[in-house]
Structures are given as C-alpha cells and as structure tokens.
Amino acid sequence: MLAFWLVALAGLLLYVAFTLHLCLLALGYPYQLDYGEGLVLYQSQLLAHGKSIYKAIDSFPYIFSNYPPLMQAVAGPLVALLGPSFLPGRLLSMLATLGLAVVLYTLLREAGAGALSAIVAAFLFVGSPYVYHWAPLFRIDLPALFLSTMGILVLCRATLRSMANPADAVVQIPHTVAMLHSSGSTRQKSLPVARRPIYLAGLLFVLALYTKQSYIAAPLAALIFLLINNREAARHLGLSLAIFGLGPLLVLQLATGGAFVFDLFMANVNPFSLSLLGGQVGNFVLTFAAIISLAVTGLASNKPGRITSSLARLSLLDCYLLTGLATILLAGKVGAWENYFFEALFVLCLYAGLGIERLSHGHSTVVHGLVPVALLIQLGLMWHDPRIAIRVVAEDGAANRTLAPLIANQSGMIFSEDLGLLLVNGKDIPFYSFEYAQLAEVGRWPQTWETEALRSGRFSLVILEKGTRENPDRFRRFTRQVLSALDTGYGLVAEVGKYRVYAPQPLQRPMDVSFANNIALLGYRIDSAPDQRGDLTIPPPDVTMPHLDPYPARLRLTLLWQARQTITTDYQVFVHLEDSAGRRAAQSDAMPFFNLYPTSRWSDDEIVRDYHDLDLPPDLSPGRYVLRIGLYDPHSGQRLQLTGGADNLLLAALPLNLPAPGVPPSATARRAPFENGISLLAYQLPTMPIMAGSTLTVTLYWQTDAFISRDYTVFLHLSRESELPLAQDDRQPLDGTYPTSIWNPGEVIADVHVLRLPRDLSPGIYRLLLGLYYQPDGRRLTLASGDDHLSLTTVQVTAE
C-alpha cells in the first residue's frame, strides 16, 4: 500500500509541476494563448488610458465588455507600463491558482483533515487538466474563484475563532452548524461570531462579483447558511454586500450612461444549449470520476440520516457544495468551457479531501488501500501531455512572428478572430465577433455593419483560426451570415500555422448557374496557387483576367457556391482542365473547401467559397485550355444536372504557356464595338486580288471588356449591294472551340474564318460583311450606329 501511495503522490506532484511549468512558460510568451485573452488585455489597455470599456453596442468600434472591471483595472497599470503585454494578467492568474491551493488546504485543515489529505486535495485541484488549461491565461475566472473561496475561508475561520474567544463575538450561531464539517452531533450550544469577519467576507464576495458576475455560489451559500441558523448574521452579510457592492455599481452606472448594467446583463445573452450542457457535464464526470467518488464518501461519512435530518445540521461547506455544484448548469451557455466548472471542481476536491481523511482512519487495511488506488485511477482519467502545450506554444509563436510584418504594414482595418494578434502589433480592434454573434442569434443585432464591410472588402485583412470556417457551430464566434459575407468578398491567400489569412478578392466572373436546383454557382476566380515559401505577400485583387504567372506550375480555381435548399448529400466537386481536343491535362475531385466542409453541413442560403488546386504537368504543351466543372454523388457517381440537361459546365478558357496575344503589326486596324462589350480590333486579309473558286482566309482580332453570358456565332459574308451572301462562314470563334461565353476580358482572340468562293463568281469588287448573332433566336448584336452588321472592307475577285 505504501508503494501505491508513493506512486500516487509522485503522480500528483508531477501534474502540479505540469501546471506550474506551463504558467511560467506563459509568462514569457508574448502572444495570445486563448481566444478570450485578447479581449481582457484590450479592456485593461482602455482602463489604463482612462477610457470606458462599457458602451452602447451600436457604436463603433463594435466591442464592449460583458465582464466587470476589477481584474482589468488591477492589471491596467502594468499593461500601461509594459505595453500590450499578457504578462500582468497571467501573473495574477497564476498567483490566484496558488492561492486557491492554499485556501483549499487551509479549509481542510480547519475542518479537521490531516496535512496529507489536505495536500492531496490541493494537488488534485491544481494538477487537474481544467486548471492546467486556465492557470496560465490572462482570464478572470481563477482570480474570481480565489476571492470567493477566500470569503468562505474568512467565515469558517471566524466561526472557529469565536469558539475559542466567545467574548469577542457579536452574532450567535448554534454550535452544530458552526463546525465546518458537521459530525452528526445533535447537541446545541450558542457560539458567538465576530461581526468584522462577516463584513470582510462580504467585501471578498463583492470583489469576486466585480471580477466575474457569475461567481454567486459562495455568497449565496453563506447567505443560505446564515439564514438557516441566524438571521441577524445573515442581515449583516447582506448589508455588507449592499455597502460594498451598490456604491461602485451606482458610480459605474452613472459614469457609463447606463451601459455598465446593460453590457453585463442585457447584452450578455448567449443562448442556452442542453446538448452543450450534456456534453460538457459528461466530460466533467468522466474526467473526475474518482474525485467525485471520494467526495461522495466525504459527504456521507459520519453523517447518518443526513437526508432526513434538519437543515440546521448543514455546515457552511455543505451549502457551498450545493451552490457550487449548481453552477454547472451555467455550462450550457454557448461559449462556456472548462472555466464554468471551477467552483464545482473546487468543492468536489474539498470533499474528496474529507473523504480521503475518513477512509484513511478507522477502517480496515483494505479500505485504507482504496485511497491510493482511487488516486491512481484519477491520475489516469485526467492525464494530459505537457508536450502538446509546448509544441503549440512553439508553433503559434512562429506563426505570430511570421504574420507580424504583414499586419504592421496594413493601413486599413483588420478583422481578426485572434484579438491579441492585433494588440501586440499595435493595431486597433474594430469588432469582437463572439459577442455580436450571440446578440445576432437572439435578434438583438442586425449584422449589417460587418456583413456589408465584408462583402465590400473594407477590411484590409481578415484572419481566422483553422476550423472556424468549416465548423461554424463549434465555438459560434461567427454566424453563418457573417461567414457567407466573408466568402463573398474575401479569398484565402495564406495559411500560417493555425491561422488562415484572407484578403479582398472579388470574383473575376459573377454568375448564377443552378445545379439540380439545390446548389448554385455564383462565380469564380482563377489565380496561380499561392506559394507559402519566402516572405508572406498578398496578391492584388485582380477582377478581370485570371491572375496567372506566365508559366504557372499550379492553378487555383476559386468557386463561390450557395445552398438554395437543404442538402443531405455530400457532393464532390470535379474540375477538369482539357485541351482543345478534349484531352484531360489536370483534374481535381474533392469536397468543398479542401475536403473540409461537406455540402450536407451547409445551411439554407449559406454561401461557401471553395478552392481547387490543379497541378500542371511540367511538359504541358502551349495552348488554350478550358475548365469544366460539376458536382456528383461519390457513392453513386451520378452528376447533378444543369438547366438544359448538361452534367458539366464549361467554365473558362486559359491560355497556358503562350505568349501574351496581341494584334500583329501587319493587321489592318478597324475598331468596331458591338453590344455586350465585344469589339473588333483589327483584321488581316491575304494579298489581293482573290481568284474565283479559291478560298479567302480572314483573321479577325476580337476583344471583350467584360465577361459575356451567351455564346454568339460570328458571321462573315461576301456580297454585293442588295444581294444575298455569295460566300459565307458562320461559326463560333476558333472553329467552335472558344465560345464567347468563356472569353476572358482584355484577351485578344485571333479568330480565323475561311470563305470558299464559288467558281462561277463574277469578277468585281465585293463587300465583306461581319457581325455576331445568338443562334437560338437569330438576334444580331448591333453597333453603336444601330446597324446589325459591319461593312468590314472590300475584296477584289478575278476570274479563275
């Protein structure tokens, strides 16, 4: 049994060392470790500079505090001295953690537990993974818990001191409830309690509430305990809470124009989720099952008939156990995590210490051996590998250093999920997404400002963490409407560590093409795939031609999709790059967003930006290639059909490994703008005259200043006045291989047409007439003059 004890104690000490090591590592780490740290640091900065952290939610910048100000005010002077540093807050959090261990140890010793039981309970708390994750952070939870438990400790110690010095007391409390952990005795003796400790406890409770307003379990437990046993003492505690709490409340309310209470309570409206609560409670119970078992033992030991006994036999710690466990219900609030279990964990460790003490004395050797075995089981249940945190700190630190110059060089607003990333680089915070996402969820925020800013590209950069876009319901820091607006106006340009960097990237070609009436393609972009080697740069937001290197090795096709109705199938997107003969040169088959965001998880009307990288063969022949795309069910292979029955969309044409096209000097300039942005730039004819019975080859040089939605047919007619065409060539450009619907704006297209002249064509001068028409209805495009054709030039024909 001794060996088990030694192993268990060594394990607990190791876990405590893990926590302390991470705390010390965090003190020297200059970047944000947790999502909420940046917000608390920003509030500390504002307070240090005499600015309010409470404001109307509809005023810019869109960030406000839903926390009380004590922690931020205490850290503020050091933040002002050191600059935007997390060090002051992390130091306070670490000291609070150590203080909690001391409070836990002292409470158990006051309750009659031995030193070993008290040390084990304190080590269980500090070494737990929940405390391990939060002790190194500039967060308010552990300091608030420390102040709350200090209030409990003050009341408990005052009770015990009054037992030794009843003449100093002014409030009488029955003996049986004055004990910290009632023993089952029914003998009643009046014991006095000094008034001063009650007011000191009230002050500590108020300080805890001004650190985090949800830490009501300790003052509520004290009030319940005193109300049951002595109403005069309860009145004094209530009076102390009012004296110390209402004054600052009134001052803050007046100073902020009413924003203090509104921001803390009315705007703190995170929705409640039973599924979230169930998942978190289940994880808590599994992680701390042995602690819970020991706590039950501590609660049940030496308390026969507890359930049926009078309320007067509840100790102060019993009351705190009840209220502390009740706080678990708050863990169903969206945004809650391990920090919402701190009070429950503290009281369970406290009662686990009592259980260890009871099991270690007055029982058989077998029962004594249960304690180290339970501790070893608990060590296994709450195992956490410190190497993970060390690796994360190293990787995130490198990512922050890489992004620093990019952020520093931006002159406009930056929308960052990691607020600390902005603060340490001297940038302002325009918007805090989580608070406003929750307000939007309950209908208190319209999301107009952020969605319009994202659609129009008003932020110079947007920086999200990996996982945010493809799993929007995980942390709910952004609504799907905001993420849809992001995907509409911004494109992914870099991935650095855990971060994804987005820059304004409007579509090169907007469209609205429906696949099977449930998924629509809203447009696309074509760029060279980003190269993450070397310095981080942001490509220009080219909105016309595909933004390609002269000889690209990899293409990135960006597609913008929208779910038009609920989608239950996880469709694959196929992208095929084909040459003029239809041979496939490269392809991509993947679910949207790098296989990370399947279509079955899209919500109705959600817009999703999707990326497909195509690796080009190193020996790719120069030429004009086309992109075809579509969607299919990977299980059945069935493709979704377009309107009209086609199962793929001819999306775009790409001149690859070709010199930049242009009009040769030998061509005859003839600029003629038609409808829909199509212009003739020039033409080229063979040497005149042309013999009857021969062929006339005409090269037309076209250009468009915008994408064209229809496939037009080019007609070239040879005729005389008032005569029908004597020779003609009607075809889509480049012999049908380059329809106008995939022309790239600004590109020069050399379109060759061949007219076969009749052998009996009379010698003379003929006109070449040129135009375009839409074959389904025969409508011709008009020139600025209103004519539906262009008299291109005259041709002299000689006899054969």
Shape: elongated
Given the structure, what is the number of helices? 24
Structural class by sheet pairing and helices = alpha+beta
Mean pLDDT: 90
Helix content: 25-40%
Oligomer: single chain
Radius of gyration: 38 Å
Q: Ends: how far apart?
A: 117 Å
Strand residue percentage: 15-25%
Low-confidence stretches: 166-191, 304-310
Number of strands: 24
Let me know the largest β-sheet.
6 strands, mixed
Count of discrete structural domains: 3
Concise description?
By secondary structure, this protein is of the alpha+beta class. The strands form six sheets. Strands 17, 19, 20, 22, 23 and 24 form a six-stranded mixed beta sheet that branches.
Describe this entry's structure for a reader.
The protein has 800 residues and is α+β, with helices and mostly antiparallel strands. The chain folds into three domains: 2-381, no CATH class; 510-658, Immunoglobulins (Immunoglobulin-like, Sandwich); 668-798, abc- transporter (atp binding component) like domain (Coagulation Factor XIII, Chain A, domain 1), CATH 2.70.50. Helix content is 40%, strand content 21%. Strands 17, 19, 20, 22, 23 and 24 form a six-stranded mixed β-sheet that branches. The radius of gyration is 38 Å and the shape is elongated.
